[in-house]
Amino acid sequence: MKTLLRALIAGGAATAVALSSGTAAEAASIPKYKAPKVFGTTFQADPQHDFTKHISPRHNGILRGWITYVGGTTAEYEPIKWKKGEMTEGWFVGPPEGNAMAYSSHVAKKVVFLSAYGCKVTPGDLTVSQATALGAKKCSRGVLLKRHAKGRHPSLITVYRGEIVKVQEIYTP
Fold first, then answer.
1. DSSP 128
2. What is the pLDDT of residues 5-51, one digit of tens each?
3. Which of 104, 125, 147, 170 could join 154 in a cystine, given CB atoms 3.0 to 4.6 angstroms apart?
4. Neighbours of 87 (CB within 10 A)
């Protein structure tokens, strides 16, 4: 009886370890992608994407972009580029009106959201790396969806297997 009980406990512990390591393995299995220049002055190309068909996810990688629409847990997003200003440093702009450069992806349940403005839905204190101008405060998926549904925030958006797995906001003064 004791042997059976020990076997059941050991089996349960092994199952728990396997399940938790599966989640860790899934997070670790996301490849490291080369990030674009944060303040790049051209739109990033996605040569394999066919914009003449229905709106669909971007191919795997990191896009400098912003979320233009949130519906439930699906986000539409488009590439952005930095436009240098004459009186100011500049600002981000999206594709011209009528251009179909847009993507749509499900936001992963375990998305990593690194905010440049804190974890409240309305932007608050700066939580940004001064070296990179990128968000450094980890916030919840709910804050990501609510904040980005209210307005466009320049970000580095990582897509893996058709899902948004990471959003890192870009600080702009």
1. B
2. 333 333 433 333 333 333 344 455 788 999 999 999 999 988 777 77
3. 170
4. 5
DSSP annotation of 43:
P
For residues 88 and 25, which has the higher predicted lDDT (pLDDT)?
A: 88
- CA distances in angstroms from 106 to 73, 75, 103, 127, 131, listed in the order given: 6, 6, 10, 26, 31
Structural tokens at position 167: 């959003």
Cβ(164)–Cβ(111) under 8 Å? yes
Distances (CA, A) of 86 to 43, 83, 89, 91: 21, 10, 7, 11
CA distance 79 to 68: 10
Contact 55, 102 (CB under 8 A): yes
Of 75, 86, 82, 71, the closest CA to residue 108 belongs to 75
